[in-house]
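Course assignment 3, question 2. Fill in each field.
Student: A.L.
Task: Predict the tertiary structure for the chain below.
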Amino acid sequence: MKNEIASLSPEQRSLNQRELIVLLGVSRQSVALWSRTGLPRHADGTYSVASVLRWLRAYYAASAEKKYQNRLVGMRKKITRNCRQQLRFLSGGKIE
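Answer field:
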């Protein structure tokens, strides 16, 4: 099946859910989750490979960006806490 799909141009590649699962090597639950969060699908229930790949790239880029932002917030909190502790130590326990 993968060879048949590979022989088509990206615009012509239209797969049903089972074929998409096999091609991507994911579970049915992953495709269902993605569908709930906006995975593009044709009216007949098939998926355009090109559209799916573009959507997945954007989906995971946004997820990575959010994770990165959350880590930055956590790092800022730790740095702030550590600076306060150092000031408290250097000032003999008195900070304003």
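Instructor remarks: The CA atoms of residues 40 and 52 lie 6 Å apart. The longest strand covers residues 14-15.
Grade: pending
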